[in-house]
Amino acid sequence: VTLPEGWYLENQPHRLLLIAPQRGGAMSIATQDIAKRGSPEKFAKNFEPWGDLANGETLSVNGLPAYIANNQRRDGFKKFTGWVGVVMFDERALLLSGSSRVNFQSNAAPNTQTDTTPAAQRTPELFAQEFKQILKSVRRLNVDELKQAEALQIKLITANADTRYATLAAAQTLGPDTADQLRLLNGDYPN
Q1: Are the beta carbons of 97 and 1 closer than 8 angstroms?
Q2: Per-residue pLDDT tens for 93-138?
Q3: For strand 15-19 and strand 8-12, is the pairing parallel, antiparallel, or unpaired?
Q4: CA–CA gap between residue 81 and residue 101 (Å, rounded)
């Protein structure tokens, strides 16, 4: 996804939390396994936590089937509009949910370098526009991104007198400081 200017994200264990400038809204992105391949609209309408949806729109997002709608949310006695979206990836659905009226817990500090939108300009309409912009930026990873996203595995090697970190690092793909990373993993850093 691509975030609008001033937005920042917090990577949480089961979701990404995207936070608008001036904390004028937030959205979460999570994934869900899907047992049956149905339409994104059908999935969204049957996803119980979202409740009743309105003003739905089916779209194609970078070649992926998607659906966006709004729903009514409640904060105490006040009702307000939230936004939801689904983008289908093979056997997984990417779920986007958020609103401009937010009561959330975040450990992330606002990005003061880019968080320049005055709070008065953080309207629900602006949030809706940015929600759609974020949803429409979803795409599949390319080959290089997939390689970077693969989980690293630790392989145990029994060292002998001839084993050198530089030799081991040359055979790895951890980046330019691989030898130092191997030293750190083995308790030999910074020596």
Answers
A1: no
A2: 999 999 886 554 555 555 555 545 555 567 888 889 999 999 999 9
A3: antiparallel
A4: 8
